[in-house]
Write a structure and sequence with these properties.
By secondary structure, this protein is mostly helical. The chain has a single domain, classed as Ferritin (Up-down Bundle), CATH 1.20.1260. Helices cover about 70% and strands about 0% of the residues. The protein has helices at about 20-30, 60-95, 100-120, 130-145, 150-185, 190-215, 225-245. The radius of gyration is 18 Å and the shape is elongated. Bound molecules: fe (ii) ion (2 copies). The site of one fe (ii) ion has 5 residues, from helix 6.
Length: about 250
């Protein structure tokens, strides 16, 4: 089965939650378990398109789905806060860079909201390390922005390299499970929720790769020390993914 490569509109209308990066950090800290009611139609999440009632998932599919939602919610939470931290700094130090950060941040807020909704819908517990992810991500955003625009872009390059690959791995697993469902189900169809999840992951993977392109176009590779910075962040992301999938 093939996964659609979605190219959705990049325009994201801001929500009232975007009054400031510092406010965003505080908001996420205080309302982590709540859905964001301020979202408007432009960020109508894919989760809401899922049918209300599903046929029971196989135990393997249920386990896979829980793990995927847990790690991706943690990752999008982190991405949201990295950009919040960067925006907080650039808004004051280099206002010309802030809109570029804001554009990627808006997309991460959308991703974060979709996975918050999926987490609530499927009653998946969040990563036990969520408080750590929040502090580390915001600190990474602030720290790289203080180093300058190139370092902030190198941070995006490193994060999106790992996350793009992570989403691709998930898509491969989803295709395998969907193929298995089609092969073994009585009606020859895969479950709607897994197909919707594959569409979501595919769309977000495209957004992350767009961020990667943006980072390269905006001098990420001119950051110093480039290798040390990007390899450290990549390894940190890999460790975080490994932990968030399990705990
Ligand atoms: Fe994202
Ligand atoms: Fe991203």
């Amino acid at each position: 089965m093939s996964i659609p490569i979605l190219r959705t509109s990049r325009a994201r209308v801001r929500t009232s939650a975007l009054s400031g990066a510092g406010a965003r950090f505080m908001e996420i800290n205080s309302t982590a378990a709540q859905s964001h009611d301020t979202a408007d139609a432009s960020t109508a999440n894919l989760a809401s398109k899922l049918p209300e009632k599903f046929p029971p998932l196989t135990p393997e599919a249920r386990k896979f789905l829980s793990r995927l939602i847990r790690v991706d919610q943690a990752g999008e939470l982190g991405a949201d806060l990295i950009y919040a931290g960067q925006h907080f700094v650039f808004n004051r130090s280099m206002p010309a860079v802030a809109p570029l950060i804001q554009h990627m941040w808006d997309q991460e807020i959308h991703h974060h909201k979709v996975f918050d909704d999926l987490q609530n819908k499927h009653r998946v517990r969040p990563s036990l390390f969520s408080p750590v992810w929040k502090i580390a991500a915001y600190g990474l955003g602030v720290g790289t922005a203080l180093m300058g625009k190139e370092a902030a872009m190198a941070c995006t390059l490193a994060v999106e390299t790992v996350i793009g690959g992570h989403y691709n791995n998930q898509l491969r697993d989803l295709v395998r499970i969907l193929d298995e469902e089609v092969r073994t189900s009585k009606n020859g169809q895969a479950s709607e929720e897994l197909r919707a999840l594959a569409t979501t992951v595919s769309e977000f993977r495209d957004d992350e790769l767009e961020h990667l392109d943006t980072a390269v176009e905006n001098d990420a590779e001119k950051a110093r020390p480039y290798m040390l910075l990007t390899e450290t962040i990549k390894n940190g992301c890999r460790v975080a993914v490994w932990i968030a999938e399990r705990f």
